[in-house]
Amino acid sequence: MYYDFHINNINLVEEAERLGYSGLAIIGGNQGEDNEWENWDRHPIQIYKSILIRARNPEDMRQKVKRFRGEAQVIMVQGGDQKINRAACEDPQVDILSMPYYNRKDSGINHVMARKASQNEVAVELNIKHLSRTSSHLQYKVLAHYRELVKLKRKFNFHLIITSNAQSIYDLHSPLDLIALSRCFGMNQEEAVSALSESPRNIIERNNTRNKVVVDGVKLVN
């Protein structure tokens, strides 16, 4: 079962199903505004409600995460700024740190943040659209960032998640194509499959039990 957890267009559901996906996380409106989530359960594959948070600073990020946590099934934080990257890795209410390498000369994640992401179960996104839309003579830099994140993942065991960031059908790729592409940035097949299946499933399973947790280590049971 494969998932794409960064989709920008609800009209891509049928094409994604044809390509072999079992579920999608679709960004709803502008950080939760003007969305049409009430109709999303009518589709043939599983649709998850997602919000991409763009924050001015760490405090702004934390406030927005708190505001939308009960509304969305998947919370993504736009990375790039080092302070926001770190704040997202330290916040267990965040599901995915999106593109921590954005507009940077490094991967955006150091050893301290990698350890925090692992402890707080914050997944780090490898956004294939960012790679494909980068000019060919600069793609090697993006690939270098991805390779560094793969190395950190192996050492600290945080979740990596591969996404398309698709706006149209031309941005979508089959899971098998993404698994093959992942070899270019040092992933083996098991790691790539995990980034398209286990990592997104972990997010949903954790969020399904989130409301049952009273305090750390104590969970309500039926």
**In DSSP terms, counting alpha (H) and pi (I) runs of 4 or more, how many helices?**
9
Sum up the overall morphology in one term.
globular
Low-confidence stretches: 30-35, 214-222
| Count of the domains | 1
End-to-end separation in angstroms reads 28 Å
Order of helices and strands: EHEEHEHEHEHHEHHHEE
Strand portion, in percent? 15-25%
Strand order of the largest sheet: 1-2-3-4-5-6-7
Secondary-structure class: alpha/beta
Output the CATH homologous superfamily.
Metal-dependent hydrolases
The CATH topology? TIM Barrel
- What's the total number of strands? 9
Helical residues, percent: 25-40%
**Describe the biggest sheet?**
7 strands, parallel
CATH architecture: Alpha-Beta Barrel
The CATH class, by name, is: Alpha Beta
Q: Name the average pLDDT.
A: 89
Compute the CA-based radius of gyration. Answer: 16 Å
Provide a brief overview of the structure:
With 222 residues, this protein is an alpha/beta fold.
